[in-house]
């Protein structure tokens, strides 16, 4: 403090001396315009130098006695979303991101398309957190997939999560999903696997917002619609096991085989195409059944059509053609000549069954209680070919659909990760308490669909990550 007082006295003396010099110059009558300019600004210059000197002294004094930072670091929020597929990616290597408003994107989300995560390569690891919902908090679970309420005694199948090898798959964020789909119509179109995925999504979203059923129709309510008032989101499900036009085998139709018309889509869903903003397609298992295939009025051939005078052909190419017709129709109706308003399309790949070599009505058809490790399970040829056809048709349409403004298409590749979960099916618990009266000689088993909660929830985790990446790319104009 003595230093500061000395500086102040020195400044006062210099000021008094300068005034005396100015007074002497005026009395002598000498005036030099350059000297007058210099002298008129000299006190200001000296005062400025003096002020800087004083401020620097104060700053040094402050830092000497209080070495803490003068400015407080701003508060940051780090989002645990790792879409970058680099093995070295970690929370410490990613930039800190300020807490963001609801419709903005974190830095990790902004970088999500720089090195895409391969969600197909990973393993199931034990997770004590468990699912977002249970059978008492979700009222939209189909009876056949409500395994816990039907008496399934083991619960370990609920405590696994999928971990990709080179990145992380974030836990499903229902609030984020609702924000991204606000004011939109999401439609699930396909067979019972589409319905299984839909009901999983409804259960997870219901943890933060109530889905109100506003429409239902058809046998077993195969056509339904819900509305989330909180975000003005409509979610629909359309039963269409072939996507293309078809007549299903049934007592009512009098047919013991299916009829498929591969050059026309099923108008039960396609008629509403203009109102849809996003479509999730899911088919496959119905193509394994006996069927006759048509193109126009001509019979192309059939599959397992015993007693019919048609050429036997495989169903893999037929499956591909049904997908091709569907995607082509979506492009044509929503973006003819590139003037459409665009649409988002997700094709969920084939979901493997796990009958473990036993018939559907045999005891223990699928009674595994643990996931497979990768080396323990090889994909069946049907699983491989169905998935391959879907991936290749999607990639081909990505090229052909470029003329459609706003057309976004992706394959939700869940075939491999689902094949490792034989423990996730209802099995005998597709019906309530199947062993309440002892062990029957025959028991019906569902080794195709998935318990809810269950592995199918992971499909929707990946669905959300795909949509987040799309939205980031859209903001960048990509």
Overview features:
single chain; 478 residues; alpha/beta; Rossmann fold; seven-stranded mixed β-sheet; four-stranded mixed β-sheet; 10 helices; 13 strands; disordered N terminus
Describe the structure.
The chain has 478 residues and is an alpha/beta fold. It folds into 2 domains: 2-65; 117-476, SGNH hydrolase (Rossmann fold, 3-Layer(aba) Sandwich), CATH 3.40.50.1110. 32% of the residues lie in helices and 16% in strands. The chain is built from 10 helices and 13 strands. A 7-stranded mixed beta sheet has the order 4-5-6-3-9-12-13, sandwiched between helices. The protein has a 4-stranded mixed beta sheet with strand order 7-8-10-11, covered by helices on one side. The longest helix has 33 residues, at 33-65. The model is unreliable at 1-10, 17-43 and 61-102 (pLDDT under 50).
